[in-house]
Amino acid sequence: MNAYNTYAMTGLPAGPICNPRRASIDAGLDPAQSSAPYLVADGTGGHVFADTVQQHNVNVQKWYAIRKALGER
Prior knowledge:
- This protein is an alpha+beta fold.
- The protein is built from 2 helices and 2 strands.
- Strands 1-2 form a two-stranded antiparallel ribbon.
- A hairpin with a 5-residue loop joins strand 1 (38-41) and strand 2 (47-50).
- It is flat, with a radius of gyration of 17 Å.
């Protein structure tokens, strides 16, 4: 066990768990305008975006199928 294993300890880690770059901070403070508020993993390390919850639900089902094919739960 180490001080960053939050599964095996109670509370927050001893220090920062990441060091975001300036672009990440800028994006969080001033996010890009988008008509696609929904996102889910696409199975390749990226994401797929959707304009409606119905489209999002289809994308989620695709992600579940990818996970199942990989033997994940």
